[in-house]
Amino acid sequence: MSKIPVLEIFGPTIQGEGMVVGRKTMFVRTAGCDYSCAWCDSAFTWDGSAKDEIVKMESDEIFTKLKEIGGNQFDHVTVSGGNPPALLKHLDGLIHLLHEHNMEVALETQGSRWQEWFLDVDDLTLSPKPPSSKMKTNWTILDEIIDLLIINNRLAHTSLKIVVFDEKDLQYAEKVHQRYPAVPFFLQVGNDDLQENQPSHLAGHLLEKYEWLIDKVMSNSQLNHVRVLPQVHALVWGGNKRGGFDYVNPPLIS
Amino acid sequence: MSKIPVLEIFGPTIQGEGMVVGRKTMFVRTAGCDYSCAWCDSAFTWDGSAKDEIVKMESDEIFTKLKEIGGNQFDHVTVSGGNPPALLKHLDGLIHLLHEHNMEVALETQGSRWQEWFLDVDDLTLSPKPPSSKMKTNWTILDEIIDLLIINNRLAHTSLKIVVFDEKDLQYAEKVHQRYPAVPFFLQVGNDDLQENQPSHLAGHLLEKYEWLIDKVMSNSQLNHVRVLPQVHALVWGGNKRGGFDYVNPPLIS
Ligand code: SF4
Ligand code: SF4
């Protein structure tokens, strides 16, 4: 068994974005990312600032902690990062354990690395990063990942999600949608104000940006089979992922 | 051919709620409802106030109008009400025409009447009304509808959505979820301030109510396999459905 580097376990709360937006879920946040996006909202998972808080845990320890915190109030677990596939060759142990207990599993990754256990994830979001992130997409790897998901009949469990901050990001989103037309496609408004943790201030700003994105997408005939969403958790609790869920007081494991 | 009583055709805009929240779509709003919910946000469809604006249209006339307004910027049409199944025995003509043009079709109904063409709807939302509506659910009919959808293998195209204003509505939601555990289940925060059309005033209020609903659902072990959503269109454009989409200036047909 290989251990999983865990930074936070908390919930239940809602999934704030993407293909299962609103889903009641627990979060397991893992450490480590192979990217360093300009606007990363969970940079503490990879920039070293929280490295003393990382706890290496076996799957069954994670499961025990989930039950301790979430009781019988959940049946869905989101494995979050960072980018879990960057480090974790063996997340299948945790996924199977959760499945045995009739729980569903969601995971998001930028699609920089394939892992076999992607085929076991119930809600898999591929979120390649647009130009504003300052990262470069490896199209060869992304092609391979999506081919493997299609060949293995996983489309109903997969989505693409592009975060959009500006016009260039929108062009990137178009390109991704055209390249993979069969994959359910989500556009998400970017949050450019990570320091603003006053939800009431942030919400108005984010809703204006959301309206901008809606306008752009509605008038674009290359973006028809799409869904456009805000981050609803940021509207309610503010922008910074860590501590964003102030009503659950994220119990850091230690 | 039987004609369809149409009140509004507009879009493209986003679907603001439910199973395909965020989906780029056109709206065809039909007249007529067999209910009169206390908090109906589209009462003009059935209270007589807009009866002079109803235009009876054939399916191909509706299709022509949709293309005229939406151009090549859509591939999804939401048939809205009122309650379309209350009057329309033959919506299949319109649905098939849209399918022939590779468009998907969504429809919401409270589930007070079965129609054969439910089996052709791509995104069918059943939204039985909770106690705060002052309406009474006919469980026999709702059971029949859901049985028929399950028998015909339509679960992937179906969802239940309960609007929640208060504790009693929440108990009602629990009951519905327990009665039909196999059907994807959505909880939606109710908008109790339909007169407030200043989006900035309304959004803060709705987000508070949304947070209340999230808290309630997170601590309720009977509501695990669920999704909790706001009405995102109301956050952006305000509460009253008619004219709520102020950026498209709904072109009333006439
Ligand atoms: S891929 Fe995700 S976790 Fe990694 S740097 Fe980018 S936004 Fe942050
Ligand atoms: S069923 Fe819908 S349209 Fe009919 S009165 Fe109730 S809320 Fe209004």
From TrEMBL, chains A, B:
<feature type="binding site">
    <location>
        <position position="82"/>
    </location>
    <ligand>
        <name>S-adenosyl-L-methionine</name>
    </ligand>
</feature>
<feature type="binding site">
    <location>
        <begin position="14"/>
        <end position="16"/>
    </location>
    <ligand>
        <name>substrate</name>
    </ligand>
</feature>
<feature type="binding site">
    <location>
        <position position="80"/>
    </location>
    <ligand>
        <name>substrate</name>
    </ligand>
</feature>
<dbReference type="GO" id="GO:1904047">
    <property type="term" value="F:S-adenosyl-L-methionine binding"/>
</dbReference>
<dbReference type="InterPro" id="IPR017742">
    <property type="entry name" value="Deazaguanine_synth"/>
</dbReference>
<feature type="binding site">
    <location>
        <begin position="127"/>
        <end position="129"/>
    </location>
    <ligand>
        <name>S-adenosyl-L-methionine</name>
    </ligand>
</feature>
<dbReference type="InterPro" id="IPR013785">
    <property type="entry name" value="Aldolase_TIM"/>
</dbReference>
<feature type="binding site">
    <location>
        <position position="42"/>
    </location>
    <ligand>
        <name>Mg(2+)</name>
    </ligand>
</feature>
<protein>
    <recommendedName>
        <fullName>7-carboxy-7-deazaguanine synthase</fullName>
        <ecNumber>4.3.99.3</ecNumber>
    </recommendedName>
</protein>
<keyword id="KW-0671">Queuosine biosynthesis</keyword>
<dbReference type="GO" id="GO:0051539">
    <property type="term" value="F:4 iron, 4 sulfur cluster binding"/>
</dbReference>
<comment type="function">
    <text>Catalyzes the complex heterocyclic radical-mediated conversion of 6-carboxy-5,6,7,8-tetrahydropterin (CPH4) to 7-carboxy-7-deazaguanine (CDG), a step common to the biosynthetic pathways of all 7-deazapurine-containing compounds.</text>
</comment>
<keyword id="KW-0479">Metal-binding</keyword>
<comment type="pathway">
    <text>Purine metabolism; 7-cyano-7-deazaguanine biosynthesis.</text>
</comment>
<comment type="similarity">
    <text>Belongs to the radical SAM superfamily. 7-carboxy-7-deazaguanine synthase family.</text>
</comment>
<keyword id="KW-0949">S-adenosyl-L-methionine</keyword>
<feature type="binding site">
    <location>
        <position position="33"/>
    </location>
    <ligand>
        <name>[4Fe-4S] cluster</name>
    </ligand>
</feature>
<dbReference type="GO" id="GO:0008616">
    <property type="term" value="P:tRNA queuosine(34) biosynthetic process"/>
</dbReference>
<feature type="binding site">
    <location>
        <begin position="39"/>
        <end position="41"/>
    </location>
    <ligand>
        <name>S-adenosyl-L-methionine</name>
    </ligand>
</feature>
<dbReference type="GO" id="GO:0000287">
    <property type="term" value="F:magnesium ion binding"/>
</dbReference>
<dbReference type="InterPro" id="IPR007197">
    <property type="entry name" value="rSAM"/>
</dbReference>
<keyword id="KW-0460">Magnesium</keyword>
<dbReference type="Pfam" id="PF04055">
    <property type="entry name" value="Radical_SAM"/>
</dbReference>
<feature type="binding site">
    <location>
        <position position="37"/>
    </location>
    <ligand>
        <name>[4Fe-4S] cluster</name>
    </ligand>
</feature>
<keyword id="KW-0004">4Fe-4S</keyword>
<feature type="binding site">
    <location>
        <position position="40"/>
    </location>
    <ligand>
        <name>[4Fe-4S] cluster</name>
    </ligand>
</feature>
<keyword id="KW-0408">Iron</keyword>
<keyword id="KW-0456">Lyase</keyword>
<keyword id="KW-0411">Iron-sulfur</keyword>
<dbReference type="InterPro" id="IPR058240">
    <property type="entry name" value="rSAM_sf"/>
</dbReference>
<dbReference type="InterPro" id="IPR024924">
    <property type="entry name" value="7-CO-7-deazaguanine_synth-like"/>
</dbReference>
<feature type="domain" description="Radical SAM core">
    <location>
        <begin position="20"/>
        <end position="240"/>
    </location>
</feature>
<comment type="subunit">
    <text>Homodimer.</text>
</comment>
<feature type="binding site">
    <location>
        <position position="29"/>
    </location>
    <ligand>
        <name>substrate</name>
    </ligand>
</feature>
<dbReference type="GO" id="GO:0016840">
    <property type="term" value="F:carbon-nitrogen lyase activity"/>
</dbReference>
